């Protein structure tokens, strides 16, 4: 696993590694979101990602690009945690979590509409 970059030379596993591989093929939609964001060939988005993270609310391609840019930026911020994002998503508070890492004042109204999901009040 060290040769493949899964374990560092200090023997440290990536954050949430055991959680992800220990779920026997089942995982939270945040991992599909991350895979979509990081994929060079932009793999097809799963229905759960579309529903949970606001892509189903997009009417325009520019709205999809906005969501992608916001999520990408947040994923790279220090302190960002995929499982925390997912927990906030399940509470209908995706925007509130992402705002901790990104200044979204300019696009907040639009993002509030886009990031609304079935878990939102």
Structure description:
- This protein has helices at residues 17-21, 29-38, 47-52, 61-75, 82-90, 94-99, 108-114.
- The protein has 121 residues and is an all-alpha fold.
- It has one domain (28-114).
- Helix 2 (29-38) packs across helix 5 (82-90).
- It is globular and about 30 Å long.
- The termini are far apart.
- The mean pLDDT is 84.
Strands, helices and their partners?
Layout (H helix, E strand, L loop, with lengths): L16 H5 L7 H10 L8 H6 L8 H15 L6 H9 L3 H6 L8 H7 L7
Helix pairs in contact: 2-5
Q: Which structural class is indicated by helix and strand composition?
A: mainly alpha
Domain tally: 1
Helical amount: 40-55%
Low-confidence stretches: none
Specify the biggest β-sheet: none
**How many β strands by DSSP?**
0
Intertermini distance:
43 Å
- What share of residues are in beta strands? under 5%
List the total number of helices.
Answer: 7
What is the molecular shape? globular
Whole-number average pLDDT? 84
The H-and-E topology, N to C, reads as: HHHHHHH
